[in-house]
Amino acid sequence: MTNFIAPVSWGLGDLIVSLPAVQGLIACGQPTWLVTRSEFQVGLAERIPGLAGTIAEGELPGKFRPHTDAYYNLREHPIQTNYWWGSPEFERDFSGYRINDILDLICRDLKIPADFRRLVPLACEFKPEFSETIVFLPGSDGSYKCWPNENWQALGSELQRLGMHCVMVGEPNNSNEVCELVQAGMSWVPTPTLAQALDVLSSSRAVVGVDTGLTHLAVHQGQPTVAVFRQNPIYYRACANATALIGSPCASECISRSLACANNSLTELSAWTPTTWSCPVAGGERCMSGIRPDQVLAALYQLLGETREQVAQHSIPGRSHGTSC
After folding, report:
1. From 97's CA, which of 68, 142, 190, 191 has a CA 20 to 30 Å away?
2. Is position 269 within any domain?
3. Confidence band, pLDDT 50/70/90 cuts, at residue 319
């Protein structure tokens, strides 16, 4: 029998949070294929040990044999189809649930042996030039998730004043935030492939990012990660290596726009076109503006186990690594 498994939704972050389910099926010893729902989920196959391969969701009918194979579609569950996660109805019936709780419930009901409390990092190539670097991840598929660029600049300036090296990872062609920060002079390292981004993140000293796929990847890799989230951090995973700072309550207009984009009833996404929306609130009134750079600094110090003074006096120690993580 061959297993096919499709992530909980279409983005890179949706794949990353679904990885324990993929890895759980692989550990059973049967050939397991990842069913990708978008181009954002392509590029990590060789970094998932034991994965048989990937296939686009729209091409699955030509390969899947219903009588002998098993298809695990993580969208085919009532907690997915009956609810828009984070909505008042969801909070009423599943108060306190976050993504790991949701996926754990789905996997238990689908009989997938997944452990969402123990994340197994993907294979990566260590890049020593980033071993003492703080990586910034300011870009996201939705601008409403993004932290103000002036905050990124303030954070970068303070860390550099303390002698810390900071670089930004992201795609200027796909993110206005990343493009503007590159133009403003922020140090940026190109990562044309997802595998290259994985290597940089896995080699870094720590990561600061918004609610985006690469931030979830950094958490999965066990990197010290500070994430800045909107009011409802449904995708935050409570891991020892990560912490989240939550924005102010969202404006009612934002909540309405989010609910208008609900696609929870769809179990297949190959013919679906994502709906984009932007925050209608201006400038400093945006929910993400309530998270201050000094709060991010404090969270970063705590994750690194150092005080501000220790960071300022930090010297790069000798480190010994092989060629892979």
Report:
1. 142
2. no
3. very low
